[in-house]
Amino acid sequence: MSQNLQLAITAFGGPETLKLQHSSIPTPSENLVLVKVAFAGVNPIDAKTRAGLGWGAEKIKDSLPWVPGFDAAGTVVSDGAAFNAGERVVGRIVEGGGYGQYLLADASALTRIPDAVSFQQAACLPVAGLTALQALELANVKAGDRVLILAGAGGVGHIAIQLAKAKGATVFTSVSSTNTAFVSSLGATALDYNESALERQVRDVDVLIDLMGGDVGEAALACIKSGGRVVTVPTITAPRIIEAAEANSISAQGMLVQPNAVQLDVLLAAIEAKTLLIEITKTYPLEQGVQAHVDIQTGRTRGKILLEMPE
């Protein structure tokens, strides 16, 4: 009988704790859809969870080995109430499991992929795309706002730049010198964080989308005008950023990306219409997932990293 090849976190620690394993192919049910995965996104939250940090690690600490992968794109295996066999789907998988050939996903988390959108493009959206979209909505970004996005060349950042520009905002973003041309091509003003402190390069910003947290996120508050708005994404340092912001009369809140098939449809339609560009910097075979984690934990990757599942 066919087996399901997966890449699992076997213990909290470095990338080497990821190990290949075989499991039985799961059985679909009324509300659970069996998907043959084509590509899964690799996200910073995957590496943090593997390292034993944050809400994800707390949730799975008694369930190791555990298969990560919160977003995946693939093909429905068998007919069901919501989808038919052969349909191409993508979803934000709260329970993980994307790092495997087969995935059992809640039907409500999945949506169909338009013909003009590739599996690879779709697989970049459930975590990074939804995070970007939901962060901008939470911050109530509107036309005329001056928006600062930290780490604009990354998976979430490069999508957030484009979505903020589409809302009519003026966008600034922190990057290294190697990525200034890239973010400029997306319509943002690049701020080289190695050149000088960000507050020396931009002031009186209305909105901060903090994708870094920690010291970097707190320092960026100096760029925000009194009464400005902050959405900070890294959950580990969110309390610290919120406290520091409020001490300076800045409204701040943290966020945790939520599954939303309707919003996924919006992002997929933007790719189809060629109004949203997805940058994929590297695609690794599942068997090289350890290297993908080595890359993503540097915090310096451009765009998205994907894992491709074997046939």
TrEMBL record:
Taxonomy, superkingdom: Bacteria
Protein name: NADPH2:quinone reductase
UniProt source species: Enterovibrio nigricans DSM 22720
Keyword Oxidoreductase: yes
Segments forming domain Enoyl reductase (ER): 13-307
Xref: Pfam families: ADH_N, ADH_zinc_N_2
Keyword presence, Disulfide bond: no
One MF term in the entry's GO annotations: oxidoreductase activity, acting on NAD(P)H
Signal peptide: none
Alphabetized SMART domains for the sequence: PKS_ER
Keywords: NADP, Oxidoreductase
